[in-house]
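Hypothesis: this fold can be encoded by more than one sequence.
Test: take the structure tokens below, design a sequence, compare later.
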């Protein structure tokens, strides 16, 4: 019997610890191929390289580093490097939440979504900043077994709550086995995307030649956590499992049907005359 084929990637680069932990967590659950960016590509969303070339460097057996985005890695892996279509595409473990509207920017979620577009199930895994990626190991193994046993494809965005002490030194002193043990038995909540608010921020700086450049994006702000949303689940110590769909059409089309009833295209509206 052919073992399931699992393609693993991330947006933090092929050397990221979270990628190694993800591979180790599923190594005995199927045949594993790793195809990840050669450098960090956080925030790449579903960007794909269409006007330049890609290089895939073979690092070791089953591992490839690509000079492209997470989506490039999945596309190249699925179509060319894997030899056959993967059953499952995993992305992560991302060091930082991908909650709420983060999914529209996240390279981790973008990679899992590309796997779904290419005919596989896809799961994105993320942990809070400062938490060791090993906290995701029991959740990874549980969900991968479940998804591989299901006949229908799915796309899941998974966020872990804080498990070990937030103080970095406390987390670093814990052995990996102890971290995994503390992460067992976490309750899972099937959630909707919540609201993730950030400070709107642009900082203007000047380089050594006197020319301006900019840093954009501010830190997260406190937002209202509503019951049943992913932000609420992780705040209450649960694993947030959010099923995603790629059809972002408005759920109710009728209001726009009414607004555009009888309307035809024209250069000027009656109001412009």
């Amino acid at each position: 019997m052919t073992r399931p084929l699992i393609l693993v990637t991330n947006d933090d680069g092929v050397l990221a610890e979270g990628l190694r932990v993800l591979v180790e967590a599923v190594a005995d659950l199927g045949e594993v191929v790793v195809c990840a960016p050669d450098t960090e590509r956080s925030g790449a969303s579903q960007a794909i390289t269409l006007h330049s070339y890609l290089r895939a460097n073979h690092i070791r057996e089953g591992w490839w580093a690509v000079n492209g985005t997470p989506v490039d890695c999945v596309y190249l892996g699925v179509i060319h490097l894997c030899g056959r279509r993967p059953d499952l595409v995993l992305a992560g473990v991302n060091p930082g939440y991908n909650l709420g509207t983060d999914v529209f920017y996240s390279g981790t979620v973008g990679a899992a979504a590309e796997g779904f577009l290419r005919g596989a199930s896809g799961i994105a895994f993320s942990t809070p900043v400062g938490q060791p990626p090993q906290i995701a190991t029991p959740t990874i193994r549980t969900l991968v077994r479940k998804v591989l046993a299901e006949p229908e494809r799915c796309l899941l965005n998974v966020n872990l709550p804080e498990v070990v002490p937030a103080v970095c030194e406390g987390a670093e002193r814990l052995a990996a086995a102890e971290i995994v043990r503390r992460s067992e038995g976490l309750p899972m909540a099937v959630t909707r995307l919540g609201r993730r608010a950030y400070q709107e921020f642009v900082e203007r700086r000047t380089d050594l030649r006197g020319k301006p450049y900019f840093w954009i994006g501010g830190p997260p702000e406190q937002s209202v956590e509503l019951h049943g949303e992913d932000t609420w689940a992780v705040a209450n110590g649960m694993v947030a499992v959010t099923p995603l769909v790629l059809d972002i059409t408005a759920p109710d089309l009728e209001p726009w049907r009414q607004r555009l009833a009888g309307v035809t295209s024209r250069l000027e509206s009656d109001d412009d005359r």
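The chain is about 25% helix and 20% strand. The first strand starts at residue 5 and ends at 9.
Hypothesis status: open.
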